[in-house]
Specification:
Layout: E1 9-15, E2 25-29, E3 35-42, E4 48-58, E5 64-67, E6 72-77, E7 79-86, H1 90-98, E8 105-106, E9 111-114, H2 117-125, E10 129-136, E11 150-157, E12 164-171, E13 192-194, E14 200-202
Parallel strand pairs: 1-4, 2-6
Antiparallel strand pairs: 1-5, 3-4, 5-6, 7-9, 7-10, 8-9, 11-12, 13-14
Family: Belongs to the UreE family.
InterPro entries: Kininogen (IPR002395), UreE (IPR012406), UreE_C_dom (IPR007864), UreE_N (IPR004029), UreE_N_sf (IPR036118)
Keywords: Chaperone, Cytoplasm, Nickel
Length: about 200
């Protein structure tokens, strides 16, 4: 008696939303899980398949994994913990969020971001209304429609006679998992040091 095959269907390519691929399968993924290169996933219908892409990709709701047997698995965005941001000056609030390189889903009357207590406090301080929600997260893509940008903004002040430091960092990350890693990092550093009235250094 022949043992049943345990080989997985494989996807080496993706089809962007709006393509002609007909899908009978779907897979529901969080925002973080929609950023991958090589990983075994399980469809909502219970079928496991291997994603093995040439490069790390960021997928949006409506994109699809194209399997080598001709089928396609549609990507759905999972509901996840978010912050809904609203206020009278939504463009100004969006600027504050963008200034921190935080992924943001822009809608007509509100902004959606991942939960972060530091950013939440900052937004409340500038007059925003912030509430916790559980919804799918489909933020704006990078400058070319796809990709992701993560950033950190830190500033430290140690008094007029000590050092003053200002750091601005912008990072772009591409990570593949399952023992395969692809990394793409862009780092920008701006440092200003002041040591009292006698010395000034700029780097």
């Amino acid at each position: 008696m022949t043992a049943p095959s345990t080989s997985l269907s494989v996807s080496h390519e993706i089809a962007r939303k709006g393509s002609c691929h007909e899908t009978t399968l779907s897979v529901t993924l969080s925002y973080e899980d929609r950023f991958l290169r090589r990983k075994v996933l399980k469809s909502d219908q219970g079928e496991s398949f291997l994603v093995d892409l040439a490069h790390t990709e960021s997928l949006d709701q409506g994109d699809a994994f194209v399997l080598t047997d001709g089928r396609a698995v549609r990507v759905e965005a999972a509901a996840e913990p978010l912050l809904a941001v609203s206020g009278d000056e939504l463009p100004r609030l969006a600027w504050h969020i963008g200034n921190r390189h935080t992924p943001c889903q822009i809608e007509a009357t509100r902004l959606l971001i991942q939960r972060d207590h530091v950013i939440r406090n900052m937004l409340a301080h500038v007059g925003a209304t912030v509430e916790e929600v559980l919804e799918p997260f489909t933020p704006e893509g990078g400058a070319y429609g796809h990709g992701r940008t993560h950033g950190h903004d830190h500033s430290h002040s140690h008094g007029p006679e000590a050092q003053a430091h200002s750091h601005s960092h912008a990072h772009s990350h591409a990570h593949g998992h399952d023992h395969d890693h692809a990394h793409d990092h862009d780092h920008t550093h701006s440092h200003s040091h002041s040591h009292g009235p006698a010395h000034t250094h700029d780097h």
